[in-house]
Design a protein that fits this description.
An eight-stranded mixed beta sheet has the order 1-2-4-3-5-9-6-7, sandwiched between helices. The chain has a five-stranded antiparallel beta sheet with strand order 19-14-18-15-20. It has a three-stranded mixed beta sheet with strand order 8-12-11, with no helix packed on it. Helix 5 (109-122) crosses helix 10 (302-338), helix 8 (229-248) runs antiparallel to helix 10 and helix 13 (524-537) crosses helix 14 (539-551). It is an alpha/beta fold. A hairpin with a 5-residue loop joins strand 1 (59-66) and strand 2 (72-78). The protein is globular and about 95 Å long. The protein is built from 16 helices and 20 strands.
């Protein structure tokens, strides 16, 4: 019976929710309310301390950051291996799994499910023995300020809890768009936690938006479609094992996000893909680690979603305990392979082709009729009538951007060294300072032929799309520049941040936009005189100019373009206009100390 046939299925599911002693201080507000409500953040603080106090041999409560509004960002570290700090885990070779809830604090299933799963594992009722062979780092709420923007209608297309937090942080940043650019203090704290613990897998707990159907959860893992080839096999094994566990417990899991190709049109089917590294699944594959995106279906009742998320967390910990040491070995080998990627061609973005095949999808009967309110064509679902949809799936993926990585690495000029260096430190990327100037280094430079800024801001940035190419030319490299070698385990992440056309590069997020703004001009009366002098001195230029007048009517009819023709060929022209300031090199320069 589908879990969404609500009254009976919900009653059955509630009947198998754990029964804890009424005075057990580890019970959440959600459990006490029958999963009608979820607690405020002070409950997280209290429970973190309570678990640590009651399980001193197995749990630590840590603060790994402070939110912009001054709230402690807390995590619970749980293991019966004795490895309750990063050094101990690394020395013992114990696999670490990081489970984070509330990156979108309105989608708060993960917080209540994580506490429930942790209590059951500590009590031996779930995943018996798993905590002997794994370390669980559980972040109940990532967006802690967003969590406290509490309201009943913060998730209008979600069934429960009664009130919940908000999608974004107090600075109105979406943490689930911030992994690569790492603007938010919360994300910087999370990356530091990741760098310290180096989890073999990071689990990101969400609830969907979208249509109504029977499937209750999607499990997406990378590397599966992208990243290191051997780790793709691990990712597929990990995903399939968790999905099999969930299916045995009555769920209907999906291996892709159930968002229609055409909004609100089930017949359009689905498209799978690889997320860019602003998202967790696109980010961790660049670090040669596993990431799992868990999306419960927002139209399922809150008790259903919490139970399924609890089942997922338990399955994940069991899989990591059982296979984590092997996965860590494969990941270390992937690190070594990544450090040898210099000079090879690597994809930085992916897209689905037009090829499709038909999939069976457990939906509901629906109609599509014009709305008397909006006038738009609207889809209306009948949850009393399950219906099998046979719809197209596009999941044949091809790189939409690939680049040949430099044999040496990237050079960041001294003018940008401070802020770029700090960004690299946040990601745990190695780099070195260049102590002496190199007046004419043989490097590659990227000159944009077009630079198209976005019309509106995204996450406070004016994004920039660049067209152009790398070319070899001598260029001065000043003292204080940074050298970022490609020969390091995070080589793919280096390229994702520093290749100017990569979808979440520093350039794509507008961090170098001033270099694509024209700052100096030649007055028309000067340009007129300069043009006559250039034409008189260079017969070949006269031929070129006359040919362009004949072949390009738009150019011929544009006085400014005609003068610009000469200005761009004059020594007064700014040769740094549309020049990406980061360079590439095939040889490592003489450098100073390595950081971080």
């Amino acid at each position: 019976m589908p879990l969404t046939r609500l009254p009976l299925a919900l009653a059955l599911l509630l009947s198998v929710l754990p029964v804890a002693a009424a005075d057990d201080p580890r019970i959440t507000v959600a459990e006490r309310s029958g999963f009608v409500e979820t607690g405020r953040y002070d409950e997280v603080i209290a429970l973190c301390g309570t678990f640590a106090r009651l399980h001193p041999d197995a749990v630590r409560c840590i603060q790994f950051g402070t939110s912009p509004e001054g709230r402690p960002m807390q995590a619970l570290v749980a293991s019966r291996s004795g490895a309750l700090d990063p050094d101990a885990a690394h020395k013992a070779g114990i696999p670490v799994v990081l489970v984070q809830g509330g990156i979108h604090a309105g989608e708060i299933d993960g917080k209540d499910a994580g506490f429930l799963a942790l209590r059951e594992m500590l009590d031996g009722r779930a995943a018996p023995g798993a905590l002997n062979d794994a370390v669980l780092v559980f972040v109940p709420v990532f967006s802690v300020d967003g969590h406290e923007r509490f309201g009943a209608w913060n998730r209008p297309n979600q069934r429960g809890p009664r009130e919940m937090g908000w999608r974004t942080t107090a600075q109105n940043l979406n943490l689930n768009r911030d992994y690569a650019k790492a603007d938010a203090p919360e994300m910087q704290a999370m990356l530091a936690l990741v760098e310290a613990w180096d989890p073999i897998a990071t689990i990101d707990l969400h609830a969907t938006n979208g249509a109504q159907f029977e499937h209750d959860i999607s499990i997406q893992v990378e590397p599966v479609h992208a990243g290191d080839a051997a780790l793709r096999d691990v990712g597929r094994t990990f995903r399939d094992a968790v999905m099999a566990d969930l299916a045995r417990q009555g769920s209907l899991p999906l291996p892709y996000y159930p968002s229609f190709v055409e909004h609100d049109n089930p017949a359009s089917g689905f498209e799978d893909g690889v997320s860019p590294p602003r998202f967790s699944t696109g980010y961790f594959l660049l670090r040669n680690r596993l990431a799992m995106l868990v999306e419960t279906h927002s139209w399922k009742e809150y008790p259903v979603r919490v139970r399924i998320t609890r089942n997922t967390v338990v399955s994940v910990v069991e899989q990591v305990a059982r296979h984590g040491r092997d996965w860590m070995r494969i990941a270390r080998d992937a690190d070594a392979r990544a450090a040898a990627l210099g000079g090879t061609r690597q994809p930085l973005a992916w897209k689905a082709t037009d090829a499709s095949h038909t999939v069976d999808f457990r939906g509901y009967a629906y109609t599509r009729t014009p709305s008397e309110v909006s006038g738009a064509l609207m889809t209306r679902y009948d949850e009393t009538t399950p219906q099998l949809w046979r719809v197209p799936m596009r999941d044949t993926l091809r790189p939409s951007l690939d680049v040949t990585l430099p044999r040496g690495g990237y050079l960041v000029p001294a003018a940008h060294a401070a802020w770029v260096g700090e960004k690299l430190r946040q990601h745990g990327i190695r780099f070195q300072a260049i102590p002496t100037a190199q007046p004419a280094a043989a490097v590659e430079v990227f000159r944009a032929t077009t630079a198209s800024p976005a019309a509106t801001s995204v996450e406070g940035h004016q994004r920039l799309e660049l067209q152009g190419a790398w070319t070899v030319e001598p260029h001065a490299v000043g003292a204080g520049a940074l050298y970022v070698p490609i020969a390091q385990p995070k080589a793919r992440l280096v390229a994702a941040l520093l290749e100017p056309q990569a979808p979440d590069s520093l350039a794509a997020w507008g961090r170098f936009n001033t270099h694509f703004e024209r700052k100096e001009y030649m007055e028309d009366y000067v340009a007129e005189q300069v043009a006559r002098q250039m034409l008189a001195a260079d017969p070949a230029l006269r031929v070129e100019f006359d040919a362009k007048l004949r072949s390009d009517p738009a150019f011929a009819g544009d006085p400014a373009a005609r003068l610009d023709f000469f200005y761009r060929r004059h020594s007064a022209w700014d040769d740094r206009y549309n020049l990406y300031p980061v360079m590439r090199t095939d040889a490592a320069p003489t450098t100073g100390d390595t950081t971080p």
